[in-house]
Amino acid sequence: MRFADYVRIAMSNLWKRKLRTALTIFAVVIGATLVGLMVSLGVGLQNYVTGQLTALSVPDVIGVEPETNLGLASVMLGATGLGAPQEVEEGQAYPYLDIGTLTGEDAERIRAIDHVDAVEPVVFVMSRWVQLEGDEKKYQAQILSSPIYEIEQRKLDAGRAFEPDERGVAVVARDFLDVWNLGSPEEALGKTISVRVAKGYQINPFSSKEPEGQDYSFQIVGVFQESILSTEVAVPVEDAIEMARYFGQDDKAYTDEDMGLALSVHVDDPKHVDAVARTIEDLGDYSAETPEESAGSLSGGFRVVQAVLSIFGLIALAVASLGIINTLIMAIYERTREIGVMKAVGASKGTIRLLFTFEAGSIGFWGGILGVVLAWIVGQIINFVSHLTFLQDYKSFNISAFPLWLVLLVIALSTGISLVAGLLPANRAAKLDPIEALRYE
Amino acid sequence: MIELESVTRIYRMGSQEIHALDQVDLTIDDAEFVAVVGPSGSGKSTLLHVVGGLDTPTSGQVRVDGQDLAKARDRELASFRNQRVGFVFQTFNLQPTYTALENVALPLVFAKVPPRERSERAQAALVAVGLGDRTRHKPSQMSGGERQRVAIARALVTDPAYILADEPTGNLDTATSREIVALLDRLHGERGLTVLLVTHDVEMAAFAERQIALRDGRIVA
């Protein structure tokens, strides 16, 4: 039998029992829609986050942290009062907060590695607010210390990165322009902002009294492209250190004695990043993460999320496959005589088997196509509604994304599951004794 | 040429064994018109099924034009039924949803004949049985005699050497029965077809050149 005839006969048989076929396909559609929609949401989210991270990440910079033997579990245990009693020494940090710090010695060891250009501390400083000169209102801001090699590679809407040894300058997130009523990024350049830093870790959440603090002035020299870091204020490392020392009331912060929790390591060429990261880890005391690794661990996580979300759809598809088996077994009873005739005029077992397999596959194929269409429509509705509501400011972000591979995957999956479901009825039909079948009333 | 050598076909009905065919030896020459007669349960239909490759004997040899059907694989038997023989049944066994033309063309579908050629050959077969003007009709729009002609056209469409007709007149009135058997006789004469006609109607059997009588699975005359 020719391929086109299998398709034609399968379609015409399904068409003869429209309602039953429609109901069987409907069950497949539900499964396919669920799988398609769930994966599309996962893909949308992944596209967004990895897109943002790729925009933010700098390909020749490695993040280094001390290798700490404290896992998340022990942190949780310590914080909740569970676990074995642990000895505490005076001046020691709380055990569950003790994640270890780096020193100038660590920085030297890493700087000595081939292809390492520069090592800078990642400075941690919390600001109370940022305020544009001449503006009454204050806004939360995330202060980031930015070595020149990092900020040079970030995408700016206007202005420039820092110059070597430059102080008192800042590059701010695009989102500030709206609240400061600045029409274009160029307008922001040259304006002055002040950043308030509180003195010490002294903020009492139960008090409305503003803690003692100090203002630091910066001139805006650049504006970042819009990104997920929507309240970012990047300042030169030296400025960040000055603020951090006031904030921590610790003059030794970010000296050779204490380089903080993490180091930013600049490699002379992105192609050496992997080798350098491995060398750092081989030193034994550090964990090093390349930009690719941080993106990779993230996509791995998203794949898990997609898989978990898809389970509901897969369960629905499995249930739908029972419907397919049922429909085809019914069809065998109805068409027993016809199968007998087909065998009498020259159909082999294989032909009959393939014919029923095609019917099963067709149910899955059409169910998959309708499922993809339905999932796409629902996805578009979700995108539309989200842009009107909670994603108003992120119009470029679609929660539901439908790449071609997902369309093909859903159709292939529902067709494949249906084909498997068709095996049992198809074999039954193939094994019918033609003489019995011809006598069947 | 059809050659049966001590062919036995045993069915099991629960614990009981039924010898539908019992040590049957039979030779049918090319272009013979043979009637197989006998009471019901005598093994007529089984003989036809075994000769047509629809059933395989429990023991013995069935050779059609030298091909040993007892040892053939399913695929070979399917091809044999498609190309070498044409079955005609008592209950016509037409597809009610197909037109006459589509019913007749069905064997050509399994023969991988392209659609256009299928229509042409099915049309020609319908003309040969005198139904050239009824091709678009469905079985429900036709009389019993017409339906059996469609079934005969279906049996002819692949140009087989053998027509195996199992009580083709069992559901028809006498006048129509005569027409149908006369048609088979004419095809036998015009095309040199070997016709095996299973019947218990003495009048219809009289059309044949030779009669074989079966009783309890054995040839008695």
Brief account:
Chain A is an alpha+beta fold.
Characterise this structure.
The complex is a heterodimer of chains A (441) and B (221). Chain A is elongated, with a radius of gyration of 32 Å. In chain A, 52% of the residues lie in helices and 14% in strands. Chain B has 221 residues and is α/β, with parallel strands linked by helices. Helix content of chain B is 35%, strand content 27%. Chain B is built from 7 helices and 10 strands. The interface between A and B is medium-sized, with 23 and 26 residues.
The largest sheet of chain B has its strands arranged as 6-7-8-3-9-10
Poorly predicted regions of chain A are 69-78
Chain pair forming the biggest interface? A-B, 23 and 26 residues
Backbone shape of chain A: elongated
First-last Cα distance of chain B? 20 Å
Average pLDDT of chain A: 85
Helix proportion of residues of chain B, in percent?
A: 25-40%
- Would you tell me the structural class of the helices and strands of chain A? alpha+beta
| Rg measurement of chain B, Å | 17 Å
The multimeric state of the shown protein is heterodimer
Q: Which sheet architecture does the biggest sheet of chain B show?
A: 6 strands, mixed
Mean pLDDT of chain B: 94
The SSE order of chain B reads: EEEHEEHEHHHEHEHEE
Which runs of chain B of at least 5 residues are low in confidence (pLDDT < 50)?
none
Query: Roughly what percent helix of chain A?
Result: 40-55%
What's the structural domain tally of chain A?
A: 2
Give the amount of beta strand of chain B, in percent.
25-35%
